[in-house]
Amino acid sequence: MYTHKGDCRPDFICIVSHLLMALGEEKAMLLHEARADLVAKLKGGLNPIFYRDVPFLPLYIAAGSTVQFGVVMPNGEVSRKSAI
């Protein structure tokens, strides 16, 4: 697992056996800002050369004490579930 603070990658990536298994984005306070950053970073979708026919990747978005779980689709669309 790796964390990254920058402009082009999600803040959190989970890699197992050289495969990307999950993504995450974190902000100090505002959940909608974390989601907007993740959507911007995933613009263009998942590269089919690396991800082939992967139907989705799990993700989380966190701000303060709120966490949302969801998935990123191959086209880069972020679908999220209820916050906890």
Characterise the protein shown here.
The chain is 18% helix and 43% strand. The chain has 84 residues and is of the alpha+beta class. It has one domain (2-83). A six-stranded mixed β-sheet has the order 1-2-3-4-5-6. Mean pLDDT is 81; it is low at 1-5.
The domain count comes to 1
Secondary-structure content class: alpha+beta
The SSE string, one letter per element, is EEEHHEEE
Describe the global form: globular
Give the topology, please.
Blueprint: E1 2-3, E2 12-16, E3 19-27, H1 31-41, H2 48-51, E4 57-63, E5 66-72, E6 78-83
Parallel strand pairs: 3-4
Antiparallel strand pairs: 1-2, 2-3, 4-5, 5-6
Which structural traits does this protein have?
84 residues, 6 strands
Task: Briefly summarize what is shown.
This protein is an alpha+beta fold and 84 residues long.
